Amino acid sequence: MASSGVVGFVGLDELSLELAASLVRSGFRVQAFEIYTPLMEGFLKLGGDKCGTPIEAGKDAAAVVVLISHADQINDVFFGNDGLAKGLHKDAVVILHSTISPTYIQKLEKRLTEDGEVAFLVDAYVSRGTSEALNGKIMITTSGRSEAIAKAQPVLSAMCEKLYIFGGEVGAGSKVKMVNEVLEGIHLVASTEAIFLGTLVGIHPWIIYDIISNAAGNSWVFENNVPLMLRGNYTHHFSNTFVQNLVRSIGVGKVSYLLISSFLECNCFCSMDSS
């Protein structure tokens, strides 16, 4: 029988460390498998326990949060020699916090449940709220069968400030992420075009930024990403991640991918005077 007070993590990032910290504060015992040493060191400082394999991270856990972004890696994590599925209790729930397509999530759930390795799986889109009310706090959009949601809800609620639930089948969380990624991309392209237009007509880009960030044309993407463009460290910070997430979420065609990549990777602002 899994312990209701134990939560495992397979894969960590900076956002996951916040989730783990929230769980520790709520009284959960948290254990994790992660190969990147700095992330594991940060996790241990929170009071978490280190695991040597995915199967160990799932031992005695009532819930396991999985953060792996590539389908082949997910297959290895679940079904490899030290695969997570082999060590989970039948009443444990897997919370899939990965950037993969809704179709793949549904296929993964079918395989896990039909093989009898995992009975409960939900997907969870984790992000920071940008509204005045949330102001950087964690929000989670999750979906799954009603019994799976019921298993996961105590853990999900402990990890976030705002929880959205879609009952019925897995995949809705990933679909919401897809919608948000598309909107971020639209705002990104619009912000880039706006700054470029201003420079073409002779207005310094930092002046444009200062004015628009206080005007009706402002957006979170404009306000937070334009300074990175103008300082020249924009590409590494955002565009690579955005393109990768978009491709994993909706399977953008090769031509569209190349167009988006070349546009976002351009360094037309990197040479601008940032003084």
UniProtKB/TrEMBL annotation:
Residues annotated as domain 6-phosphogluconate dehydrogenase NADP-binding: 7-165
Residue positions of the active site: 177
Protein name (Swiss-Prot/TrEMBL): Ketose-bisphosphate aldolase class-II family protein
Domain of life of the organism encoding this protein: Eukaryota
InterPro entries listed in its UniProt record: 6-PGluconate_DH-like_C_sf, 6PGD_dom2, 6PGDH_NADP-bd, HIBADH-like_NADP-bd, HIBADH-related, NAD(P)-bd_dom_sf
Domain 3-hydroxyisobutyrate dehydrogenase-like NAD-binding: 171-239
Keyword vocabulary terms for this entry: NAD, Oxidoreductase
Entry GO MF terms: NAD binding; NADP binding; oxidoreductase activity
